[in-house]
Amino acid sequence: MKSYKKELWFNIRGRREFINITPQVEETLRESGIREGFVLCNAMHITASVFINDDESGLHHDFEVWLEKLAPEKPYSQYRHNGFEDNADAHLKRTVMGREVVVAVTGGALDFGPWEQIFYGEFDGKRKKRVLVKIIGE
Question: Domain 2-137: which topology?
Fold first, then answer.
């Protein structure tokens, strides 16, 4: 059994963004040399998410609209958390979208269903953040 670890770093210019990180995860898998096992990808920040879904711009827009209805950014005063920071909505959005994904590795490739891709979701950007990629297998 082998393991391999890599951190992917992001510096999002805006407050929110969805980034398809599948190519970076696939490259990390190639670097690892692991052919059978599992890939874990998790956001290392409490206001960011890693999730699997379709890479379709209309769907990404729908996520943004839906999340903003569930946990609107403003007014900042609606949240008790806000004080030093104004990111309570980002914490809530991350809870809905999830912290991590696990993907099977078969024959040296990510074993996805149709249309599945891995995304990094940023809900409180404008600073450097990371995703941990941990691969375990043979």
Answer: Jelly Rolls (2.60.120)
